[in-house]
Structures are given as C-alpha cells and as structure tokens.
Task: structure prediction
Amino acid sequence: MRTGSHLPLLFSLPAYAWAAPQEDIEHRIDALLKRMTLEEKLGQMSQSTDLAAPITDKIKQQIRAGRWGSFLNAGGPADRAEAQRIAMRETRLGIPLIFGRDVIHGYRTIFPIPLGQSATWDEDLISQAAREAALEATAEGIHWTFAPMIDICRDPRWGRVAESLGEDPYLTSVLGAAMVRGFQGDSLNRADSLAACAKHYAGYGAAEGGRDYNSAWIPEILLRDVYLRPFRAARDAGVATFMTAFNTLNAIPATGNRFLLRDILRSEWKFDGAVVSDYQAIRELTAHGYATGPPDAARKALLAGVDLEMVSTTYFDHLKALLQANLIDMREVDEAVRNILRLKFRLGLFDGRRPAAKPGIAALPAAERLATESMVLLKNAGGLLPLKKTIAKLAVIGPLADSPPDQMGTWAMDGNPRDVRTPLAAFREMLGNDRVVYASVLKNSRDMSTAAFAQALRLSAQSDAVVLFLGEDATMSGEARSRAFLGLPGSQEQLVDQLASTGKPLIAVIMAGRPLTFHRTAEKLGAILYAWHPGTMGGPAIAHLIFGDSVPSGKLPISFPRSVGQVPIYYAHLSTGRPPGPNDLGTPMGTPENPKDYTSRYIDLDFTPEYPFGYGLSYTTFRYSATRVSAPALDSSGSIEISADVSNTGGRPADEIVELYVSGPAGGSVARPVRELKGFKRVHLAPGETKAVTFSIRRSNLAFYNNRMEFSAESGRYRAWLAPDSTRGTPVDFVLK
Ligand code: BGC
Result:
C-alpha cells in the first residue's frame, strides 16, 4: 500500500503487478482491481470537464482522492501535466488520468471540416491529416480524441452533417477507418498515439426532421446495412473507444441501449475497448422518459454497457446505493472499470508515457493539399475557370473571403485564427495588392442589409472578374445548429442578383458546413466552387484553384437537394414500384388535378437532386468506356474484375475519382438499393492519357443483411458501373452463382 511518499509511482511500488510493463495487461488489471475501493472504481468511471487553468485546490484534492479518472476539453498542457503528477504520485494507487479532447479536424492546424475531407475520397491523405492532428495534440498532453464522427447523414438540415463523412456507408467506412489509423498510429502506447473514438453510436445522424438530438427510427435491416457499417469498420480498424449517442434509437436511448452496446458491440463484434457516454447523456435518460431519475438512469446505462460517464455524475452519486440494494452487481462495475483501465494500459499511461515531442509546422502542406482536394467544382460555364494570372483587376467580395473563424468551421477550439491564411490574403499575395479590390459588403453571411451593394457594384465595374464568397458562417453548422431552410442566408441572393446584372464574369466560392440549396442563384453564376469550411490553408488552396495552379478534383460525399422539400434525398435508395424514368425530368406534367404520370416524383419540382452524390467537375474532361467484367459469373470462392478505360480528353493533367457502383441481386430475398458504392480510386491522367481502372469484387463485397438479419451474399444477377458519379456510367451485368 502506498504510504504518501512523493517518489514516482514506478519507484515506490515496484512489487505491484500492475506497475510491471512486462506483465500481461489483463493480469495487471486484475492486480489493480483487487486493490481498488468502490469509490476509486466509481472515480475511474467518471469524467469531468472541470480542470480550470490553473487547477483549483478543490480539483487537486478530488484528484488526490481518486474522484476522477478522466478529464475532457479542459486545462492547458501545464495543468494536465500537474494533474497527472498528482494522480500518479499523490494518490493511493497511482492510477493515471486520461485526457480527452475534441480533436475533430485538426488541433492547432485546422484541416477542412470532415464533410469536406470526405469530398477528397483520399484515404491516405485523410489518414495523414489525422496523424498530424495526433502529433500536435499529444505534444500537449492529450491522449484521446472524440473522433471520428461516423454517423451516416442523409439530411443536410442536421448541423452536424458538417462533422460527418456524408451519406454513404462505404465511403464513411473507408475514410472513418483511415482517420482511426491516423489518430492512433502504429501502436496505442506510443507517445504520439491519440486514442480514437467512434461516435455517436448509433443513429444520431438520422435525427427526425434534421433537428439535433431528435429521435431516430431505423429498422434493424437499415441499421445494420447502413448506419452500423462504419462503426463495424472502425472496430475492425482497431478503434480504442466508442461514444454513445444522445438520441433514442427505436424508442430506446442509445445511452441505455443494451441491444447496441451488449448484443452488437460486445457480443457480435467482440469489442474490448471502452465505451463513454456523450456529454451528460446518462443524466438525460430521465428527460427522455426512459429513467425515473438519476439513480435509475445510472442503473440503466450501466446495465446497457456504458463504462464511463461524461460530465454528469449519476454513476458516482448512485451506483453505491444501487449495489447495496442489489439492483446492480459488482461484476458490472468491475467490467466497466476493467474496460477503462485496459484503455489506460494500452495507451502506456501506467508506463511513464509523456507528451510527445512538439512537431514542427509539417501539417501546413498537408492542410493545403487536403483543402485543395476537398473542393468541388459544381459549375464552370464556358470554361470560365481557371482565370488567367494576367488579369488586370480582380474583385473579391463577401465577408467569408477574409474571416479566419469561419474558414476554420465548427469544432476548431484549438485552432488559432492568426494562423489562418484567408483567400483575400492569398489573392493579394498572388496578384499583388494593386490588382485585388475587396469589399465584405455584408457583416457576415446572415446580414440582411443591402446598404453596401453599391460599393460591390463599383468594384465589379472596375474589375475583369468577380470572385464572390458566399455561404454560411461557421456557427451555422455543428452541434445544435440545425436549419429548417437550406438557402443562402441574409441578403446574399440579392447580392448575386445585383452583381449578375453587370455582366461581369461571376465566380462563387461557397463556404458551408452542409449542402445548401441555391438553384436560382446558380443560374446567375458563371462558376461555382464548393469549398466547405476549408481550414487553416483554405485561402491558398482556393487561390491556386481559381488561377489554375491546381485542378479541382473533389466529388460530393452527399447529395445536394434542389429544395429542402426533397430531404431526405440520397442515391442508394430503393426503387419504388413506379420509378420515374429519364423522360420524367422537370416539373410540367399536366395539372395537379390530373398529374398524368403516376410515378414517384413531385408535381412542383424535378425529383432528381441538384447535384448527385459523387459529382464534381474538373478543368479537364474525362471519358469513360463501357464497364467490363472479366467473366460473366462469379462463383462463391472466386473474384471478378470490373473495369473500364478512363481517358483524359481535355487539356490539363488532373486527378479523376473513379467510382464503382453495384446493384443487385435482382429478385433476392429483399429489395436492394438501386446502386451502392463498392469501391473508388483517385487516378491521375495526363491530357490524352487513358488508363484501365480495375476493381476486384469478391462474394463478401456483395453481402448484405436480409430480413432475418443474416449477413450474406445471395446468388442472382448483379449490375456494375464504373462511373464519374452516382447517376452515370454504362452498366454491365454479372451473375453470382
Ligand atoms: C458532443 C460530442 C463531444 C462531446 C464532448 C457533446 O456535446 O455530442 O460529440 O465529443 O460533447 O465535447
């Protein structure tokens, strides 16, 4: 037993098995658990945000007493170091603290918001960005990030779509796993490894009405086939932790959901990491009406399988009485503590882990590349872009052209606005101050005023082209930032109307945390570059794209609706019995009284999206040959090759993201989506160059959940497309025997 000496733990307690790094982790946990009091166990199950800088005496005292096992989003590097010193040297058992933080899309260097990262379809670069974030965060004593958020979202009203990787389970699985690998590095116990957290488990992105925290109703077949797939992929990538979601899923809150946490995560998937609740989500079980009060909430969360309580204190306050009343069992407490301690052991926290060395500024080039690849060219009428650098005068208009916080986007609390290189600064650097004229015109994107429109018209009259920065402030997306309208806020549309009347070439760069609807405005613009919230290096990335030093290559990771009334709209939908055909585009179709055509569409708007999933233009053009298969049929053990020739038919070297879609089987046990993404490759092509792009498909790639919840591939006829987006490509059929 420790006697209060101030020597480091490893020296004072050499005999204890938990202090011996060579011992097996489970033995070390056994040894430690045997020594722990109930209060110490409950302390390990509690996470606080209360680590003020400097640390108060009250918190120091609490740490000494083992009241907290973990802190989130609190304190600075020195406070964390001091808290850790107290935990390891001045407590009875020397159990280290774990420091968690929302390192969502970068730490000091801010990368594009996750939805923008997803538009790169670049697994390696996304993994590298997460690695850079881990280097920066671990150097400041952070051990654990609450990322990646891999909630599938098919509703752009939801503000947290900005933090998501979009609508598709395959893309989200591949890119989410890449983030996990990047954050965690080669081994969790390295000083620069940041434990990742797959969140929010599960269904959070399906909030009813797109309203944050709202109920999710997801039939099990859809849950397993779509919403859970990225979580399974994160688990397979070795993610250290899971976070439960705030929402109810099919009437049971995710934070009290035994089916999700015990049946699927622990029993089916054999996950042995730690499960943390979301912020006060255990306490909120009462507000959901699922618990009668805090004691009942604690009991339900524990029984469901939540190990660690974030911020609320129902575990610490009530588990003791629940044990005494035999309403829970010590085994359940021990199991939760074991999962938490396992995480701490795996991170090397017991074995003298210290903050990693501070990295240099290596992240900036990666941040610029990621920003460049994330931007999606939606329109480029008559090849307006790229502009020529010989341009005499460029007008830059709009508040988002020079707004560091908005450029960083949601969840950028460690980003420093002073590091941000804005588009305005980048244009001035590129062309010289004299050739760039600028007016913000509006105070922010929500500004309704038209007072400065005259100034915008004056600048436009003096210039050869106008680059107009449109979109949403950073604060309009993210947590609790749901929108009922998806249009450009404030007077931005009127501003476009005015500028369009001048006849000057009009280029819009749209910064936003979600798909916006801007159909009428788009018609007035010559070119549209969708830039999301591009992060620290967004400015240079935009300037280089606009002037052709780089070529747009991003593709949409989510469908863009024409109107909010089309939501939810996503490409991998089922067919109806009356699917509208290619001749049913547009809206005129008889009268509302006599719609003529009884297919699944709207009488007042085209049924297709404004821009489909997978869509994005380039400064060059690509041609796809018809899709080929290596054999007409695939037997159960083999694989089949699906390929097409992709040619660069334009004048510039460029990357093209080639997408593989599959549908089928026809006539299976359940109806299947009209198409599903099954692969993608980023291919570089010189002008005139053609490459054969090939994907290999095995039986397992075709597996899906049937109505008995069995995951298997059914025999039958399948169809495949290699395509530039989810609506195009020439299909080929093959049979799975
Ligand atoms: C969010 C989580 C986040 C946590 C800690 C919650 O409100 O839903 O995603 O990790 O806060 O900041």
The mean pLDDT is 95. The longest helix spans residues 330-346.
